[in-house]
Request: fold
Amino acid sequence: MTTSTDNKMEKIVALCKRRGFVFQGTDIYGGLRGAWDLGPLGVALNNRIKSEWWKMFVEGREDMYGLDAAILMNAKVWEASGHVAGFVDPLVEDTETSERFRADHLLKDNGIDAEGMSLEMIDATILERGIKSPKGNPLSKARTFNMMFETRIGATAGPEGQVYLRPETAQGIFVNFKNVVDSMSPKLPFGIGQIGKAFRNEIAPREFLFRVREFEQMEIEYFVRESEWQEQFEAWRLAIWQWFDHLGLSRENIQEFEVPENDLAHYSKRTIDFEYNYPGKGFDELAGFAYRTDFDLQAHAKASGQSMEYVEGDGTKLVPHVLEPSFGVGRALTAVLCESYREDEVNGEVRTYLALPTHLAPYRACVSPLLKNKPELVEKARGVFMLLKKEFGNIAWDDNGNVGKRYRRQDEIGTPYCIVIDFDTLGENPDLLDTVTIRHRDTGEQERVAISELVSRLK
Amino acid sequence: MTTSTDNKMEKIVALCKRRGFVFQGTDIYGGLRGAWDLGPLGVALNNRIKSEWWKMFVEGREDMYGLDAAILMNAKVWEASGHVAGFVDPLVEDTETSERFRADHLLKDNGIDAEGMSLEMIDATILERGIKSPKGNPLSKARTFNMMFETRIGATAGPEGQVYLRPETAQGIFVNFKNVVDSMSPKLPFGIGQIGKAFRNEIAPREFLFRVREFEQMEIEYFVRESEWQEQFEAWRLAIWQWFDHLGLSRENIQEFEVPENDLAHYSKRTIDFEYNYPGKGFDELAGFAYRTDFDLQAHAKASGQSMEYVEGDGTKLVPHVLEPSFGVGRALTAVLCESYREDEVNGEVRTYLALPTHLAPYRACVSPLLKNKPELVEKARGVFMLLKKEFGNIAWDDNGNVGKRYRRQDEIGTPYCIVIDFDTLGENPDLLDTVTIRHRDTGEQERVAISELVSRLK
Reply:
């Protein structure tokens, strides 16, 4: 049975709340727009995505170094990077209600692409087309709105107390470039990887984990000689595809969008957006990959007065160029959920399951006794449970209701294997002594396996 | 050779910077007080502390559920929790220079304990004792200063845009209590564990990872029936000691400080601070453990209008009471570094090493060829390296300088085992074919082990 894509996203969001993956942030107080909390299963899935990424791109490679820079940085970072001046959206106000809107969104609703327009051009377009606020009132002139959250550090009132919540983790890497070079003596080309929270004060946060105000990034800044950027760009492009494979995303649901030259950020000579085909939404950003030249290191060298030069083995000095593969954790989580959400029909009833890869599933297996009121079954099942929990950690125990209901519950949260201990396990059929039933999530098929072989079968 | 405790902390801080554990935040721009960045080895050690904690207290237990709530929450959370009104420090200003100081710190410098003093009492004491600012100038009257960082969400100017950076992760758990109960159907007693960043606008951030403005917490809220709190308190107290054992901290370096009844927070009926004996500093906080009664759930029930009742199997309804074991990741990291920092004498030279437990060390082992200019040695060593890297992940490769220097480098970053491939490995001595030298960090002892046994020996 195919799943209608019309409401697939709504079904996923509902499943996420019902089964403890994702909750609206602070929902008991009416929520906070653009913030989401991960429940017990969401944090398990999220942690696995992050640790698999770290294994693939940091720990698993000899040319990569990890970093965890602070969210609060000296404000000079954001002046040098251009964010104070340039990380802005155009904003207009409803002159009656004082509600504020993204001017480019209002223009887009009227069929106009505001990309690259100055404030004056936006004002002129609004006037010319007679564009009103969604409530039908006149609009104010457009002004810029910086998307960085501001806060103050210390108790003084002066400008020295002004800081920002980082809008990207990347700059934390650039300002630590010399620290990593000095402490680790890496050889070019090499990269620095980081996972961490970033914040953007979106005027119009969108549904679920798209365009949120607080999000987690997995970012790499890969430092290369200018002459080798194209070769390394191609190698990383392929590595990014391998990551999507590892997440279990089908290649037909992903496309590369080559950002046209005239739309490139001023520091970039080439940028690819990797887009996923989210149900009911279409292709939208999953990850980005930019060649940032030496823009950032040069900008920080100039602003800080510190050298950002790398010294080659032969004494040549250079400021490396940078490739930036950048991944949103929430986007990856959403794509994995969308990709794995399935419905089929079992005994005339709709069965919902998440076909998650085993290395991502919150629980690798669920163990249960056939009946919970038979102490000998429970005791045997507990032994199997402890054996597997010691080996894998993420093993569930479920003795509620009948076996069929347990299967449905585990299907819905993507547990690949359900293991049931029955009277044959205890030797009622002597041929089956110390064997258990393994039931497979995606096919519903069952097989009989010896307890002694369970660990290797589940690997 | 014993290490002088006078400058041990300075040595550790210097090692942390030199070898890529911890850097001052944004140091190329003169730093940001109270913020620190973790370098490649610091993030490795930190990640291990966090994942071991998660395994011990969340994944490893059947009564625990994980959570990852957002840093930005609806401001009503902090009104209900009492932080908006009560999370304050008393502040005085130098009337000449406008510099601001913690009034309680100035009083402490003059031998006066300001604990529990009202602002009026502080003013009276300053007047009476003639206390001046550190520059000798008169002080302003004391006022309260809220330690929560404030920011604004959205583009509107009204009070609805006011939010705070969370000063603790705990409230993210309380506001998700019902979500976890509804989605996971846990049985009392049960707990929710969370690891995440929190922020406090300390007026006087102190050296290194003590009293920082941005820090990471590992917190548990454990929900119990009121009648069982003492029994569960004792069980958790022992579990906390086991955690310190697992970090490799000696019990003689840790003490429990039972907070006296008249110093308890208004919501707590019992609180223990676990203190570590930091070198050159003495006993200071490492972790906290509080019985918070039902204060938080009741406060949120009242403020949100949502029920925080738990329904027992027999239909009994109750608002659970809460035990809170709370750990600072930075404090744990610091204690582990202090505990493991050692100096001894080898061939008349001081040798510095970190006696880190194997399960925490950034690298489990380092592999190197005896000589880097012998391709047959390098090739063989690469094979051993790849074998171990596939099994463990965190394996270092080092072919720089002579073997003695490599040992010193690995000692300093706490690598438990150095593995050297030499000509005997290749069969120069046929009896030693396919064996390698394992050199042990703490003792400097060396032994010969077959490559086929390496994986099991390193486990």
Remarks:
- Chain B has a mean pLDDT of 94.
- The longest strand of chain B covers residues 282-293.
- The longest helix of chain B spans residues 40-59.
